[in-house]
Write a structure and sequence with these properties.
By secondary structure, the chain is α+β, with helices and mostly antiparallel strands. It folds into 2 domains: 281 residues, Rossmann fold (3-Layer(aba) Sandwich), CATH 3.40.50.150; 76 residues, no CATH class. 27% of the residues lie in helices and 21% in strands. The strands form 5 sheets. The protein has a 9-stranded mixed sheet with strand order 4-1-5-8-10-9-12-13-11, sandwiched between helices. The protein has a two-stranded antiparallel ribbon with strand order 2-3. A two-stranded antiparallel sheet has the order 6-7. Helix 4 packs antiparallel against helix 8. The longest helix is centred in the C-terminal third of the chain and has 16 residues. It starts with a strand and ends with a helix. The mean pLDDT is 94.
């Protein structure tokens, strides 16, 4: 089976960087592995400029990616591929019947999951690897687990089994405390599906699945839930949309409609990458130094506080928040990086240059790239759309490259075994 990949919501190429162990010396991109990315799509609807697309095509070539609303893409033109990958937004996945029931079930307009679902239906890729925020497993708050349940049933209706795991990158030696859910699906036509069909569901999660093999967990079973999501239980997505409710834990699998979900703990990593390990050496440009006039505001934002606020109806309440380390601890992995990194806000990282002199700075763009495990200056491109502020934004939106590199290596063996 060919090692071909289609990358949706490609951003600046995190999946490709990981799968192909990309290196960049400031001029030339070297892809050490030979996954063939046959098609990619990146389009940002909220901006006129397309900085992420510009970065992807500057690094991988003008024809490497298309910049078009995925909802307007005819899915039949997407090349056949072995692996579908992508990090997609967490949205309201609710479904309803069309005005004329003859047209069947419709997903909420603009929700990107339904574009993935259309690719699954149209192209039937043997394997799928997706990334999302971990709150996906709990949403919506009014009907826990409904959205993820809809996803699992969509996979089932298209012939897939699914594994998932919430991975905190720092717990496995990577340089950032970033929790994301990774979802791996495999089609019933594959040898891998037939092999895993013989494995007890609990063993898929704890010992035999792709996440168990690459991100080891303790044998202890802290909590668990189970459910059935097949047509025998829920006639269609409409019934499931209205009735499904399940507490999804941070690991689980679904095979033939049977769901098992477990609360698991990672095996402790003894070789953590720390914040100090990703800092640039030498003198840092003065523009990253925090001015004395702004220092007090930074300290206030990072400190604990209790504030009286008003609800829309005029009722007052007390809003409180705890303190964040100021400056950031260098002997620990970085905190979760957000798209607002480097701006004057509570979540930005602050590095001590000289605490005795009250001298502090923000992260540089290269350090932000290192926290996400991209090559240095990956986002430093000629495009006018890619301002320095956008470079931080790109990294706040990205995934930890090292995680998908590890999964890509393992997936390579799975694909080779299909021959």
């Amino acid at each position: 089976m060919e090692k071909t990949v289609v990358e949706l919501f490609a951003g600046v190429g995190g999946f490709r960087c990981g799968f192909n162990q990309v290196e960049f010396d400031g001029n030339k991109v070297t892809e050490k592995n030979n996954w063939n990315f046959v098609w990619a799509n990146q389009w940002e609807p909220s901006t006129k400029t397309q900085a992420a697309f510009d970065c992807y095509t500057e690094r991988f070539g003008e024809d490497a990616c298309i910049c078009q609303d995925i909802g307007e893409v005819d899915k039949t033109v997407i090349p056949d591929h072995t692996v579908l990958v992508g990090g997609f937004p967490c949205q309201d996945y609710s479904v309803a019947r069309s005005l004329s029931n003859e047209k069947g079930i419709e997903g909420k307009k603009g929700v990107l999951w339904w574009e993935i679902a259309e690719v699954l239906e149209t192209k039937q890729p043997p394997f799928v690897l997706l990334e999302n925020v971990d709150r996906l497993l709990r949403s919506p708050s009014t009907q826990r687990g409904r959205d993820f349940g809809i996803m699992l049933r969509t996979f089932l209706d298209n012939g897939y089994a699914v594994e998932w795991r919430v991975i905190n990158a720092a717990e496995y030696g990577f340089p950032q405390k970033r929790r994301r859910v990774f979802i791996f699906a495999y089609h019933e036509s594959t040898n891998y599906y037939k092999k895993m069909l013989k494995v007890p569901l609990e063993q898929i999660v704890y010992k035999k699945g792709i996440f168990a093999k690459n991100f080891q967990i303790k044998d202890t079973q802290l909590d668990k839930e189970h459910a059935n999501i097949s047509p025998k239980k829920y006639e269609d997505l409409i019934v499931l949309n209205n009735e499904f409710d399940l507490h999804f834990f941070n690991a689980g699998c679904m095979v033939n409609g049977e769901i098992r979900t477990y609360k698991v703990e990672p095996v402790e990593c003894k070789n953590n990458t720390l914040l100090k390990d990703v800092l640039e050496n030498g003198e840092i440009d003065e523009k990253y130094i925090i001015s004395p006039e702004k220092l007090e505001k930074w300290k206030y934002l990072k400190g604990s506080k209790k504030l009286e606020r008003k609800k829309p109806n005029g009722e007052t309440y007390c809003y409180s928040e705890g303190a964040i380390a100021f400056p950031d601890h260098l002997d620990a992995p970085a905190r979760t990086m957000l798209t607002s990194e480097s701006t004057t806000n509570r979540s930005s990282h602050i590095i001590a240059v000289d605490e005795k002199k009250d001298l502090y700075r923000t992260l540089t763009p290269v350090e932000a790239e290192r926290i996400q495990m991209f090559p240095d200056n990956w986002t430093n491109i000629e495009s006018k759309a890619m301002t320095e502020r956008r470079r931080y934004f790109m990294m706040g939106n990205a995934l930890v490259v090292g995680i998908v590199e590890r999964l890509g290596k393992y997936l390579e063996g799975i694909v080779e075994a299909e021959d």
